[in-house]
Amino acid sequence: MYHRSKMNTQLSRIVTLLNVCKVLIALTILFFITILVWGLFLPEVAFTATKGVAHWELNIGMLGSFSFSLLVPFSLLPTSMPYPYMFEVKTAFITYLLSNQLVYTPLLFYVLHLVTTFINHMMESESPFHFEAVAQLKRIAFVVIAYSIFGLFMINLAINIFVTHSLNISLMNLHYVGLLIGLFLLAVYHLFRYGVYLQEDVDTTL
């Protein structure tokens, strides 16, 4: 009983930490929205693009010496033509920032919701091998895999439509690290699901 209470205390702290993460993400989104709205009213000359080794650095000059930069990989913005004739920097900046927020913000909040639900099920049950808890792992794995495959593709598509006005799809736009994490979570799900079956056998025997 003591160990169970101690575990619930630790899990409650994790839930609290996840809630803090949600607040921080919300504040970050508010900051990006402020940048977007501000950028909409700035002239094209307030935006600059610098070609790096593997990325474009898109910069917006705001108040005084304050500026904000985005790094956009060449797989999204091609380098076949020299700046400034290839794309409008303001359009590229706003499209990339906005599409990133629209694609990844729902992912972050949904995954945090699933993790919180997973932990809550663990706290309510007497064993971590609970069907409802394990089902959350499966959902998290598939969401991460889906976003790893289609997330950058959707951003790439937005840039093709609004910035380059051309079709430039690259396999480099797959998020391979996220894909590996999703596959790992899927493997963990299958291990937990096997644990659920073992737990059910023990409960039936008792």
TrEMBL record:
UniProt entry keywords in alphabetical sequence: Membrane, Transmembrane, Transmembrane helix
Q: Which domain of life is it from?
A: Bacteria
Residues spanning the membrane: 20-41, 61-81, 102-120, 140-162, 174-192
Establish whether keyword Electron transport is in the entry: no
Q: What is this protein called?
A: DUF2975 domain-containing protein
